[in-house]
Amino acid sequence: MYEPTQHQHERGASVVTPEHVLLRFQTAGLGSRAAALMIDTVILFLVNLTVFIVIGLVIFGKDHDFFLETENLAIAIVILLAFAFNFGYFLLLEAFWRGQTIGKRMMSLRVMRDNGQPITFIAAAIRNLFRILDGLPMGYFLGAIISFFHPQDKRLGDLVAGTIVVAESSSTGPSRKKGQQQALPIMGEGRALDLDERQKGLITREDWQLLSSFIQRQASLSPEKRKELATQLAGLLAKKLGLPEEPVVNGDPLVFLQQLHANLQKDWKLGS
One Pfam family name from the record (predicted)? Predict the structure, then answer.
C-alpha cells in the first residue's frame, strides 16, 4: 500500500509494509537529484573521454589505408560501446547496488519501489529507458518539470516504473532533514543480544532496511507511536530469528530492536 503525504516545505511518502508497519520517507528534491546526476555525468564524461582517446590512438596509429577500411566499423563500435556503457552505468548500479549510483550515494539518495521494497532489475531498466524522454528537449527539462509538480518528486521514468527516489538519513551524523532529531541512544546495553551466524543469515535485505529505517526515524515519533511500531517490528523479527516472542514483546521491544540493529550493522549497512 502506498500513501503519499505532504508537509509544508518538505515532500514525502508513507509506505505501509506487508507487516502493517508504517514508514515515512523524505523524497529527493530537484536540487539533490540534479547534484547526483551531475556527479554521475562527470564520471561518465571522464570515462567516455578516456575510451575515445584510447580508441582514437589505436585507429590513427595504423596506416592510412587501414584507417579508411575500418573507419565506419570503428565508429559503429564506438557508438555502440558508448550507449551500452552510459545506459548500463545507471541500470546496473541501481539494480545491483541497492538503488544507488555513485552520485546518488554521495548525495545520500536511493531509488526504491513505491511499496518500499528494493528496486528490481526490470524497474531499473524501465526507469532508465525513459531517461531518453525525460531528457527532452535537452538538459532533462521534461523530467525536471514533471518532478517539480509531482507531489513525490517523480520524473516520467519513476511514474512508469513505479519507483521513488528518497533521501536517506545518516546513522553516524546529523540528519539532512531540517528539524529532525538524531536517533535515540541505545538503552539497556547490559542485556546482551547474541546472534549466531545462522540467525544473522535469516535476516534479509528487506528486514534490515525495515529495522534500520525504524531506528533512524524513532526519535521523530511520539512515544506512543514508537512503542506501537517497536512492538510490531520486534515480534516480526523475533519470530524470524526463532526467539520467544512473548518475552521480547512484553519486555522492552525497543531495547531489543536497538540491540539487534547494533548487532547487525557491521554486516548490513545502508548503501554498502
Answer: RDD
Instruction: Tell me the backbone φ, ψ of residue 148, rounded to 5 degrees.
Output: -65, -40
- DSSP 8-state assignment for residue 270: T
Separation CA 249–CA 245 (nearest Å): 6
Q: Where are the alpha helices (DSSP H) in 61-101?
A: 64-96
The mean pLDDT value for 218-234 works out to 82
Q: Does 176 fall in a domain?
A: no
Query: Do 201 and 123 have their domain in common?
Result: no
Q: Is residue 251 part of a domain?
A: yes
> What phi and psi values does residue 181 have, to the nearest 5 degrees?
-80, 165
CA nearest 200: which of 187, 184, 211? 211
> 19 is written with which cell numbers?
507487516
Q: Which residues contact 23 (CB under 8 A, 6 or more apart)?
A: 14, 15, 16, 17, 116, 210, 213, 214, 217
Domain count within the chain: 2
> 119-156 burial, b if ≥16 CB within 10 A, otherwise e?
beeebbbbbbebbeebbeeeebebbbebbeebebbbbb
Show the CA angle centred on residue 183, arms to residues 182 and 185, nearest 5°. Answer: 115
pLDDT in tens, 157-193: 999 999 999 887 543 333 333 333 334 444 444 445 6
- CB–CB of 37/111 below 8 Å? no
The span from the CA of 263 to the CA of 259, in Å, is 6
